[in-house]
Structures are given as structure tokens and as C-alpha cells.
Amino acid sequence: MTRNAELLFNPFEPGFAEDPYPAYRKLRQAEPVHESPIGVWLISGYADVMAVLRSQLSVDPRNIQDGPFSVRLIEGRALSMLDRDPPDHTRLRSLVAKVFTRRSIAALEPLVTGLVDDALNRIAVDGRADLVDALAFPLPFEVISRMLGMPRTDTAYIRDLSGKIVHTLDVVADEQEFREIERATAELDAIVADAIAWKRTHPTSDLLTALVEAEDQGDRLSDDELIAQVELLFVAGHETTVNLISGGVEALLRHPAQLALLRDTPDLAPNALEELLRFVNPVQQSRRITIKPWPVRDGRVIPPGTFVIAMLAAANHDESFWGPTAEQLDITRPNARQHLAFGGGPHHCLGAALARLEGRIAVTRLVQRFPGLAFDPAQEVTWNGRISLHGPARLPIVV
Questions:
Q1: Candidate from 142-146, 171-175, 222-226, 348-352 with smallest mean pLDDT
Q2: Using an 8 Å Cβ cutoff, are 398 and 372 in contact?
Q3: How many beta carbons lie within 10 A of that of residue 13, not counting itself?
Q4: Record's CDD domains (predicted)?
Q5: Which of 72, 293, 335, 350 has the most CB atoms within 10 Å of its CB?
Q6: Closest by CA position to 280, among listed 243, 306, 238, 335
């Protein structure tokens, strides 16, 4: 099969970092199942993305065959559940899932509410803030740190390491950037290894202790696997929710009628959160790898060993599913919960309930607390420049 010579999707075009949705629309309309000249297949329509997520395609990057596009692996990577297929994925996920039950997450509501209110109190004193630094980052970081039982450390340092590591979810072509990611990964490995060593002799009732004990009880978690699961939970436990909170508030500020509706109708909060997930897409894409010829629409077949990108954000704005208002924010949307922001199938986001809890409480209490909430006219919103984990890097507000 000859690859399409046209580059229909280029995330490095000017303006993409600020607003990727015109690029997604162009791709959906031109070719929703697209064989890119860089060697990947891009799936952007809702039905097709859903089919990818529910399929038995691999997530293990070691299954990618040599070709015009390949993934560089950092030494020792592909050990977390994010990169493993059954039966390893099933085994690893089952260990963590015991802690991420609806009941256990619901029990965190007083903690989350208290942390949000503390942050809002500080914002009220100053009258203005960068919402990312003041609320969107510290809230999920503190919650996942407490759940894991991670020792107190330099938050800014960990944030910097985490920010580098998540670039592995994007295309890394620059050699210097790749080396920085390798160094950040090694440093975070050492921090997590030290925490695990401490927990072996000082067990408590936290997730990290539970994972350590599961390994000790013969659940066949190697030391490297244990480090990989903890890092995944630690990094994914805050990086994605940062984008949900900051991106959600940014979207509401751009749609003042929707912001007023949420403020005046608190009962809409759960559905509003689902619509924000659909609209802002904290995780923009999910990857799979074919392990055998995989048929797609119009009789086309994706060959084995091929990188497939399920474009969650594009699917969540697909007019063929969401109708003519697909690219509008509507917190009353009746089917908002059918979004694909948390992926789907066997790799559906394990932390979905936690993200929903943190996002709902943070956004709604911010809106209720500050009727005068607005963009800071003296400063501009800046974006993080990431392809996969898209969101504001700075969100200056006044209250």
C-alpha cells in the first residue's frame, strides 16, 4: 500500500499549541482514517476511535516494526501497565484497581474540598493568581502524593522532572531533548526507589505500601516493575488533572454564558464536568500498535507492527456523533458522558473517578466562590506546547 503523500496533520504548525481543533477538523473532514507519510495511522472519527479503544490492539511499543516511524525507548521502560498487554496488564492493573474503587475515591472528597478551599483562600487574599500554580497543579499533586504515601520532597523539582518525562508521549525528534528526558527519568527512578526502600521497613496504610506488600507476597512484581507502576500513578495522577482544571476554567471564561449557568445552577456540576472533559480533552490521544493485519473502513488494512494514534480530542469534537454543536461548549449536553477523554476498553483510565472528583470540586467551588472571576487583562494565557497532554501552562485570573 502506498502511503498518502499529503501531510494532513502537522502538530508543529504555528497556532496548534494554542488551538489544535482546526487541525483535527481538517483531518476528520479530509480522511478520518489517515495513513500519514511519517508512517503512522491517524484515527480521528468518533466511531473509528471507539473501535480502536475497544480492540485487542497492543500498547507495547516493543511491537513496533522498523520503518519510517519508530519509538525510541528509554532503558528499562515499557514496564508500566500503560505499556503492557495481557496477561501482564491484567496482573498489574488488578493490584492498583483495589485502591481506585468508587468508594475509596468518594472518601477523598473532604480532603479534596479542604485543599481546594485553602487554595481559594490564598487566591482571595491576593485578588489574582496564575490558576495553574495556585490550584490546578498543587491540588492533584498533593492528593496523589498522599494516596501513594510519597515522602515530602521538592515539589518544584518533581514538577520539572514530571514535565520532561511526559514528553515521551509526544514525538521526540531532538537528541538533546531525548537526553534530558533520560536524565529526568533516571532521577525520578532514584526518588521512587528510595521511597520504596523506606516503605519496606516503614509500612503504612497507603498505596505504595500495598504495592510493595503485593510484590513481597509473590505477586511477581519485579523491582523495575514496581518503580514503573509508582511513577505512572504519580505522574499520570497529577499531570492530566492539571489540564482538566486549568483548561476547563479557561473554556468557561471564554464562554461567559456557560460560566454563569454553572454558577446559577449548581446541580449541573457533574454534567458540566463531563462536558468540559469532552470539550478540552486533557489527554488528546491514545496510541496502539497492530500485531497482525487490522482491517479498517473502506476495505483498507493496517499492516502489523504499525503505530496507530486514536485521536481522542478529534473524536470528542466529531459532528457525525455530537451533531452540529460538536465544537460548542454546552454544559447541559445530555450525552456528554459519552466522551472518550478517559480512553476506553481494557485501558480505560484507572484514575477517571479521581479526576472527576478533583475537577468537579475545584471548578465548581472556584466559580461559586468568585462571581467576578475573569481573565487577568494584564497578562496572557500561555499553553504547554504538548501534543498529548494539552493544556494551559499559565492561566492568569483575577477574582
A1: 171-175
A2: yes
A3: 12
A4: CYP164-like
A5: 350
A6: 243
Q: What are the grid coordinates assigned to 353, written together?
A: 473517578
Res 1: pLDDT: 38
Q: Report yes or no: 64 and 289 within 8 Å, Cβ to Cβ.
A: yes
* Domain range list for the chain: 21-398
Over residues 155-172, the pLDDT tens digits come to: 778 878 877 777 666 665
CA atoms of 70 and 353, how far apart (whole Å): 33
DSSP 8-state symbol, 14: T
* pTM for the whole structure: 0.90
Q: What would the mean pLDDT of 350-357 be, rounded to a whole number? A: 93
At 237-257, the pLDDT tens digits run: 778 899 999 999 999 999 999
Picking from 340, 368, 141, the residue whose alpha carbon sits closest to that of residue 240 is 141
**What CATH number has the domain spanning 21-398?**
1.10.630.10
* Per-residue 3-state assignment (H helix, E strand, C coil) for 138-174: HHHHHHHHHHHCCCCCCHHHHHHHHHHHHHHHCCCCC
